[in-house]
């Protein structure tokens, strides 16, 4: 887990700038397929949203040139990337590293919110439901990707580990074990 006073890494401009040219349609389709795979493996994730399982969320990685609109769609999620603000009941904004760190348990969402590294707008109860659902699912997004990569799983795991070490961004679930 990163040191509490360590600054949150920002996506380098050399990475973010070329993403402005990226066509968002194909990436949206890929992320929708990926999120549906995650939904099949973790059905409780969307059930845990309860009344918010049809609420649209805007996830805004502030250091990237697009926002991620997540529509849980009752457990058959749809992801749409868009330029600009996006449209949803709740908006959760912060550096990509902070958003990934929350998913992987490397950062505490409350601490990020109170330090103003994370901004929540709109329906805060919906945002809290999403955060609790993700926390309970104990997702490891990199592991979910490697499961889909067949014979490339092992090299991809090594690549994620290298990228995580070099960037300081939490790309895998924290493996910290309680000393008790």
Short description, anyone?
The protein is 44% helix and 13% strand. With 180 residues, the protein is α+β, with helices and mostly antiparallel strands.
Write down the secondary-structure element order: HHHEEEEHHEHHH
Structural class by secondary-structure content: alpha+beta
Note poorly predicted spans: none
* Fraction of helical residues: 40-55%
Quick check: average pLDDT?
Answer: 90
Strand elements, count: 5
Number of DSSP helical runs:
8
Strand order of the largest sheet: 3-2-1-4-5
- Mind summarizing the main beta sheet? 5 strands, mixed
Our Rg estimate from Cα atoms comes to: 16 Å
How much of the polypeptide forms β-strand, as a percent range? 5-15%
**Termini separation (Å)?**
18 Å
Shape: globular
Textual characterization of the structure:
The chain is of the alpha+beta class. Helices cover 44% and strands 13% of the residues.
Secondary-structure map with pairings?
Layout: H1 13-19, H2 24-41, H3 43-47, E1 57-61, E2 67-71, E3 78-82, E4 90-94, H4 96-103, H5 109-114, E5 119-122, H6 124-137, H7 141-147, H8 153-167
Parallel strand pairs: 1-4
Antiparallel strand pairs: 1-2, 2-3, 4-5
Helix pairs in contact: 7-8
